[in-house]
Each structure stands twice: as C-alpha cells, then as structure tokens.
Specification:
mainly beta, single chain, 1 helix
C-alpha cells in the first residue's frame, strides 16, 4: 500500500510551483478551520496559524547549502461562512553554508508575503492572490559577490482533495504569472548568464500531498512537487508567451513520519533539484538532500 502511495506522489506531479518559493513544499487552505459564526456569518480576523522547520543538508549538496530554516504564518482577515476566506500570509526560507568557525554561516534569505483569496466549490477550492517575493544575501560583504532577486506574481490555484483507500491526499494545481522581476548581480559580468529571472514569464505547477489516515499517534506522510518555468527572450516582458526562449524544470520529494495531535511534528527527508538555486551570482543548478523537522497545523496545511 505504501509503495503505491509513494509511486502516486512521485508520478502525479507533472507540473508545479516554480523557482525557489518558500511555500513550495506546502499547500494552504484556510477553510480547513471551522467558522464559529456559522455557515453564513461574516467573521473578521477569524484565525491565525503558523509553521516552522529546521534541517541540515547532507550527502548531496553544494557549496552554499549546509542548513535551512523555514518560518511562516497567516492571518485570516475575513471569513464568510465556511466558503470564502481572505488571508495575509508571509514566510521565509533561510540558508546557511558551513564556511565559518562554527560551520553555520548565514548566506541567503528568501522572503515572501501576499494576499490569498479562497473559495470552496464542493469538496474542492479555488484560490487567487498576489505574492511578493524577494531574496537577499546575508554576510556577503567580504565575498565581493551579491545577487538580489525580486519575483512577484499573480497566482491562481485549484485544490482537489482525494483518497487512496483510507489515506488522505490533496493535489494543488497552480499557475503563476510574473509581474515584477529583478535579478541584480555583483560582479556585473555575471548579468548575461542564464537563467536570468528578469526574463521569467510564468510557471505551471502541481503539488501532491498524501498522509496516513486514521487516528494513530504516529503516521507517515509524503509530498511531491515539480515545476516548469518559462523564460522569454527579453527582460521584464509581461504575459507574452509567443517568444519563449527557455523552460526550466525543478522538483522535489519529501517522505517521513509525523507525531500527530492538534499540530503535526514531522521528521523526514527531502530531496529536490533546483535548476538555479538563486544564491550565487553565476546561476548554479543543484541536487539537495536534507533531513529535518517541521511543525504545522494539519487542518489548514498539507
């Protein structure tokens, strides 16, 4: 049974979140929490939730990845019954390399914040919103190298729950159209190296999450993501797909066990391939394997 679930998680993600988005491992559905005002009531500042994680890269990694930290949360600004929700959400992904005397050298922070509107349609849900994302180097003055990124997007997402026998699953199909793109590099001689995020057009994606059903205290989980991102021939061209110059592929797989209660405490392993890590001024692809822990609210996050 578990082999079938793992195979489904690996094979289903044919497209997914693009680039290095801090929330690429998660799918958020605020409607998973009930509305105390009833099915038709309007509730302001309805709920709040957060998540966090910490891990280390081992076995396969590059020169910039030794440790990672993830923090995020949302405030539900408006809830209309159990069918509509508007949230403000923010999260970070912090990366450290091993190149100092304590083998924990802060290197880069990927940050995002945005507004997300969710509307349920039967068991499924639609989401639309806008996310502003950026990346900044940390403690890089002596390196003489820097890469600053901005990659905001309009997004649309469709959430579809499913079951595999007694186990729970969620598929999240996603489209991002990039509106603000910046990829500033020092030394400037690296500006012509590709992929250049100033030329990003859009991305199409699918996350697939499966977790053990039932009320057991400990249960397994698995998450898969995969991405296709299109790049144009010119910088800062919006929504023009007639001159696609390049398409990149990114993806990952996470497996592990969760101690389950009102929150889930996950212990697991993640693998991902990034066609451009977004850290070095000269773009580098990387295969990364990490081991770590994550804590989240299972009612609203997968």
């Amino acid at each position: 049974m578990r082999l079938r679930v793992l195979a489904a998680t690996v094979l289903l993600p044919l497209v997914s979140s693009a680039q290095r988005m801090p929330e690429r491992w998660f799918s958020l559905n605020p409607l998973g929490s009930n509305n105390s005002e009833g099915s038709d009531g309007v509730s302001l500042m309805h709920s709040v939730s957060s998540w966090g994680g910490f891990g280390g890269y081992r076995i396969t990694r590059d020169n910039e990845h030794a440790w990672l930290q993830q923090l995020g949360g949302y405030i539900e600004l408006v809830r209309i019954g159990n069918n509509e929700s508007l949230v403000f959400t923010s999260s970070i992904e912090f990366i450290a390399n091993p190149h100092n005397d304590i083998r924990f050298n802060p290197r880069a922070t990927f940050w995002e914040e945005g507004f997300l509107y969710t509307r349920s349609v039967g068991e499924s849900a639609w989401q639309v919103g806008y996310y502003h994302r950026c990346k900044h180097d940390v403690d890089n003055l002596l390196l003489g190298k820097e890469r600053s990124l901005i990659f905001g997007s309009l997004l649309g997402k469709y959430l579809l729950p499913f079951k595999i026998e007694n186990d729970e699953g969620l598929a999240a199909l996603r489209l991002d159209l990039y509106t603000i793109r910046q990829d500033d590099r020092i030394p400037q001689s690296f500006n012509e190296a590709t992929p250049n995020w100033k030329r990003m057009l859009g991305s199409l994606g699918l996350n697939v999450h499966v977790r053990e059903g039932g009320n057991a205290t400990v249960g397994w989980y698995t998450t898969g993501w995969f991405s296709l991102t299109s790049f144009g021939t010119k910088e800062n061209v919006i929504f023009r797909f007639d001159k696609i110059d390049k398409v990149t592929v990114n993806g990952g797989l996470a497996v592990g066990y969760a101690i389950r209660g009102n929150a889930h405490f996950r212990i697991g392993m993640t693998y991902e391939y990034l066609s451009d890590t977004g850290i070095t001024p000269f773009p580098e692809r990387s295969n990364l394997l990490s081991f770590g822990v994550t804590i989240l609210d299972p009612n609203v996050m997968w």
